[in-house]
Specification:
Blueprint lengths: L11 H35 L5 H27 L18 H13 L1 H45 L14 H37 L3 H55 L4 H29 L2 H17 L5 E6 L6 H22 L4 E8 L2 E8 L13 H9 L4 E5 L6 E8 L2
Parallel strand pairs: 1-2
Antiparallel strand pairs: 2-3, 3-5, 4-5
Helix pairs in contact: 1-2, 1-4, 1-5, 2-3, 2-5, 4-5, 6-7, 6-10, 8-9, 9-10
Length: 424
């Protein structure tokens, strides 16, 4: 969760932290932006001789990594992250010339690539000045407060290597103390505004433009539509398979048993009673399977109790203690409610099956036009959407509603799964 800085940033320690962040920005502007801009120019020039086809994708990975780092730190430092504007680019093996050529063409046709190049060019001076100025003022002021008077006291007018301060007599030497205090205060006060100004500069070039946002939105909708169609097709196949292998087979068996009983009703009453008993058992099992199937489509508890009651019932059914916190002003729309319920249910099932945890937590609330849920556990961690744990399927289910599923699960735990669904 992004921490928004407020009044707690007024202390000297926090202001020094902003100065240190400025130094980081200045260093990255020289070590990162200058070096990568040079490498980008070389890679573009190398396209003429063909080597750049293999070199440019590698360089752009580093460029986009640096730009994304600045976008992320903008969110961490100011509470206002910068969105990623890049179009999807297919990866290519280093030895695959055809795919590398296609990847280069995609990179060069992406406007965000050229905005990154312009950003690196301008960030070299802008990042250096805005990042280093606060720390320079603080260092210059500390020199006047702590160094200049004592060097004058010990070396006097022979202080030839002396000073960054214009010292002509002892009075000037001691006047450097209040001047240094003012400069330190100025450096501490301007650190945060200057870094915010640098963030605005980054946003100007690193944030997606209106056309880029629309293009990314279209690409996202195309992906989610395809995933939704595949997910619904798989769900229909599952329902058909469950009906064919379960309730339908039992109903066929029931019909055969009743038909046989009809033919034996006068010849073998004992066998008829046995067949009727089997028929009653088959009908009971078929009814149970149909109820399970309906519960998998839309659980009755969800229709009866709403999302609040249904989720609490899920938590009570687990074999471990679950801390539940639910704050919902009203029931969400039925499709959103159903999607949220199934995602929470599957996540809690994963906690039971795979996490090795002995305690879990569940929080469900509504804020900023979205339904949010967090499921956490104290298990072994290591949950990966690509690892076949079903998390990728949950992401596809939420993507149909323009929702997201974020997973934080470092090895050793804990695991925190955060769901967000647009919901008025």
């Amino acid at each position: 969760m992004v921490r928004k800085h407020g009044s707690g940033d007024s202390g000297a320690v926090n202001r020094l932290r902003w100065c240190a962040r400025g130094v980081l920005v200045a260093v990255l502007s020289q070590v990162g932006s200058v070096a990568l801009f040079t490498a980008t120019v070389i890679a573009l020039a190398a396209l003429i001789v063909g080597v750049g086809v293999f070199l440019l994708p590698v360089v752009m990975v580093a460029v986009r990594g640096l730009a994304t780092f600045h976008r992320r730190t903008a969110g961490e430092w100011t509470g206002d992250p910068i969105d990623i504007p890049y179009r999807h680019t297919a990866a290519a093996a280093p030895h695959d010339g055809a795919r590398s050529f296609g990847q280069c063409r995609q990179l060069l046709s992406d406007p965000a690539t050229w905005r990154d190049v312009l950003w690196m060019l301008l960030d070299a001076p802008v990042g250096l000045v805005l990042g280093l100025l606060p720390a320079s003022l603080v260092a210059y002021g500390l020199n006047g407060m702590l160094v200049t008077p004592f060097l004058w006291e010990s070396m006097g007018p022979h202080w030839g290597f002396g000073a960054i301060w214009p010292i002509t007599d002892q009075t000037d030497a001691y006047l450097a103390i209040p001047q240094g205090v003012l400069l330190v205060a100025l450096g501490l006060l301007c650190a945060r505004p200057l870094l915010r100004l640098h963030t605005r500069f980054n946003r100007l070039l690193l944030a997606p433009t209106r056309s880029a946002r629309l293009a990314l939105r279209v690409e996202r909708l195309t992906e989610t539509r395809s995933e939704t169609v595949q997910s619904q097709a798989a769900e229909l196949r599952r329902i058909e398979r469950d009906l064919h292998d379960g309730a339908q087979a039992r109903l066929v068996s029931l019909g055969m048993s009743l038909g046989l009983a009809d033919t034996l009703v006068e010849q073998d009453p004992v066998m008829v009673r046995k067949l009727l008993a089997d028929a009653m058992e088959s009908s009971s099992q078929a009814l149970t399977e149909l109820r399970d199937l309906v519960r998998g489509i839309h659980p009755p508890v969800l229709a009866e109790r709403g999302l609040d009651g249904a989720v609490r019932a899920l938590a009570m059914g687990l074999a471990m203690p679950v801390e539940v916190s639910i704050e919902l002003p009203s029931r969400p729309q039925p499709p959103v409610e159903s999607a949220a319920y199934f995602v929470i249910a599957e996540t809690l099932a994963n906690v039971t099956k795979h996490s090795g945890a002995n305690r879990a937590s569940l929080r469900l609330w509504h804020a900023d036009g979205a339904l949010r849920a967090q499921v956490g556990d104290n298990g072994r961690g290591g949950a990966d959407p690509e690892g076949g744990s079903g998390l990728r399927g949950l992401q596809r289910r939420l993507a149909a509603f323009d929702g997201t599923l974020d997973i934080s699960s470092p090895p050793g735990g804990p695991t925190l799964v955060t769901m967000e669904l647009p919901c008025e």
